[in-house]
Amino acid sequence: MSYPARTPATRAQLVARSNRLLIWAVVLAAPSVALGLKVGAVWASVAQLAGASFMLAATLFGLALIVLPLGCMVCLISALFMRVESLLRPPYDTHPTLADKLCVAGAVLASLLPAAWPASKVARALTTGQITIRQPIEHSFSASSDALAYWENIGYWTLAAIALAGLAAYFWRSRWRIHQANQSSPRETPASAR
Fold first, then answer.
1. Dist CA 89 CA 8 (whole Å)
2. Res 1: pLDDT
3. The pLDDT of residue 194 is above 50
4. Under 8 Å between Cβ of 83 and 175
5. Is 60 exceeded by the pLDDT of residue 137?
6. Chain centre to alpha carbon of residue 181
7. In contact, 62 and 29? CB cutoff 8 Å
8. What pTM, to 2 d.p., does this model score?
């Protein structure tokens, strides 16, 4: 049994999907922010319950605390990257809209966020002269008392930041090459399309 070949989504389809995901991100963000602002009051009312009603309310409360923000982030990041992919599909636009530029900027920032965490640990360690490792037990190393462990940990976090930033750079380099190839490919004129 042969399956029909899937045709790649067109630019308009990707933009439409991106817009739908962006709407979902906003829809999930509203209750997430409302719950975050009232988390103490909501938990106080849940804590007053007992038995099965407490178990059900606490489970729903915990799920809401996890699912709403996570769903919002997944929808937002998917919408941004889908918009970036739409720019690589024909018809190629030499003048992207402001929304396109904002989505590309947001996608670049989102791809660099994983590298920001280890980079922030390195920056904090270099400014304070001390680095704290929390696993398996919490221990602090300072440049003056335990210089070898201090610089080893700085090297480890620096390599982690470089590796994560390198993955993001590899992704964006491939997208840039596709963009350049699309811009340099000869465009079909209406006369030649006939």
1. 9
2. 58
3. no
4. no
5. yes
6. 27
7. no
8. 0.71
Provide the sign of the torsion angle of the four alpha carbons 91, 94, 100, 105, taken in this order: positive
DSSP label at 175?
H
Q: Are 81 and 100 in contact (CB under 8 A)?
A: no
State residue 97 phi and psi, 5-degree precision.
-75, 170
**Positive/negative CA dihedral, 120, 126, 127, 132:** positive
The structure tokens 């840039």 sit at: 176
| Phi/psi at 91 (5° precision) | -75, 135
Q: CA–CA separation, 152 vs 140, rounded Å?
A: 13
Helix (H) or strand (E) run with residue 189 in it: none
C-alpha 77/C-alpha 90 separation (Å) is 22
- Please state, in angstroms and rounded to a whole number, the distance separating the CA atoms of residues 75 and 68: 11
Euclidean distance between CA atoms 193 and 45, whole angstroms: 68
Residues in the chain: 194
Tell me which of 107 and 49 has the higher pLDDT.
Answer: 107
Return the pLDDT at 110.
92
Q: Which two tokens stand for residue 7?
A: 């045709």
Site of tokens 């988390």? 39
Give residue for tokens 């439409």.
Answer: 16
Residue 84 CB-density burial (10 A; 0-12 exposed, 13-18 middle, 19+ buried):
buried
Structure tokens that stand for 39 in this block: 């988390």
Round to whole Å and give the CA distance between 29 and 69.
7
Q: Which positions ≥6 away from 121 have C-beta within 8 Å? A: 131, 157
